[in-house]
Design brief:
Jelly Rolls, four-stranded antiparallel beta sheet, alpha+beta, binds nickel (II) ion, eight-stranded mixed beta sheet, binds N-oxalylglycine
Length: about 350
């Protein structure tokens, strides 16, 4: 079982056939494309001062146009970010016998270490990545399931999770203000199932043929992503069919709007499509903090956004039902927008 992790069998030479994506999906030789898209970088500190309204506008413009933005001066210290990157990186360096205690593909378990994706066992092609996932909400109930090793793991990852939950709720408050929803609109069941994924992409002998993840939007309300230890590039964002590399920077966090934000905003905000690629020489890591609805939460356009001119575009479903449709529509079976189209009203 433990040999299933890419990091435990890859030898720097072999790429098994079921990791080679068909030509139309593989990245090809242009692994780090550039385009004229520039993802806005927003100084979050200015939310407190006289520029508040202009910062809210910048964020809402980015949410409408891109479904993604970057933030600086976000109030999470470099120490917390760096220590978290180091902890996760060291977790992946633990002996495979230690890590294999956590192997699980069950998306409802509090912690799980798996490879490729949740539907690995049905996939035709696998992603060149291993993922360690853990639930973070409510924190006190989740921490007892987290790893003890490396030393300091629980303490540091707890501090990081507290900061991400705080930051996430600040960002969501801006979005509810920008959309004209009541304060706290996103603060309840819509965001009360936080989890963090550590993505680990080992060096790959043929990066042009393989993928770290395929084009997707996240199944979250919002995701706060940081690129990992060593700042190895590999994240790409897609708008209207054009790809651009999101350059890593140690103090910058990337905020992606997920499918759920698109539904709740009744399509006023878009979700940000992205993927990740591997490279030949270095392992790459990224850390994604997902703010998600609880399983029983009803996902539907916010009532305050519905008018005769703007009727609801999506049907109401529970988040559990949404996930079932999402998992049945995995990216290379269908286009990412099909996940949400499943719920578009006829
Ligand atoms: C994800 C993701 C991208 C990356 O975890 O959902 O898209 O940069 N990760 O690894
Ligand atoms: Ni993603």
């Amino acid at each position: 079982m433990e040999k299933v992790l890419v990091s435990s069998w890859c030898d720097g030479e072999t790429v098994p056939e079921n990791y080679v994506f068909p030509p139309e999906l593989r990245p090809g030789d242009n692994l780090l494309p550039k385009s004229d898209i520039s993802i806005p970088i927003i100084d979050l500190d200015k939310l407190h001062g006289p520029d508040h309204t202009s910062i809210v506008t910048q964020i809402m413009d980015a949410c409408q146009e891109f479904g993604v933005f970057q933030i600086i001066n976000h109030g999470v210290s470099m120490k917390t970010l760096d220590e978290t990157r180091r902890m996760f990186s060291e977790f992946f360096k633990l002996p495979v016998e230690e890590k294999s205690k956590f192997i699980s593909w069950d998306p409802t378990s509090k912690v799980g270490l798996y490879t490729s994706n949740y539907n690995y066992h049905e996939e035709k092609f696998h992603f060149w990545r291993d993922v360690f996932t853990q639930k973070c909400y409510p924190l006190q109930e989740c921490i007892p399931y987290w790893p003890h090793k490396p030393d300091g793991y629980r303490e540091i990852v707890k501090e990081y999770s507290v900061k991400m939950i705080e930051l996430g709720s600040r960002i969501l408050e801006v979005m509810s203000e920008g959309l004209g929803l009541e304060p706290g609109y996103f603060g309840k069941e819509l965001s009360q199932d936080a989890e963090v994924n550590l993505n680990h992409y080992p060096p790959c002998p043929e990066p042009s043929l393989t993928l770290g993840t395929c084009k997707h939007s996240d199944r979250s309300l919002v995701t706060i992503l940081m690129q990992g230890h060593g700042n190895v590039p590999g994240l790409q964002y897609c708008k209207d069919g054009k790809w651009t590399t999101v350059d890593p920077s140690p103090d910058t966090l990337v905020v992606f709007l997920g499918h759920i934000m698109k539904i709740v905003s009744n399509g006023k905000l878009r979700s940000g499509d992205h993927k990740s690629v591997t490279n030949k020489t270095e392992a790459r890591e990224s850390i994604a903090f997902f703010l998600c609805p609880t399983r029983d939460c009803v996902i539907e356009p916010a009532k305050a956004l519905i008018t005769p001119e703007s009727p609801p575009l999506f049907t109401s479903v529970t988040y559990r039902e949404f996930l079932q449709a999402h998992d049945a529509n995995r990216c290379f079976k269908a286009k990412p927008e099909d996940v949400v189209n499943t719920f578009i009203k006829a």
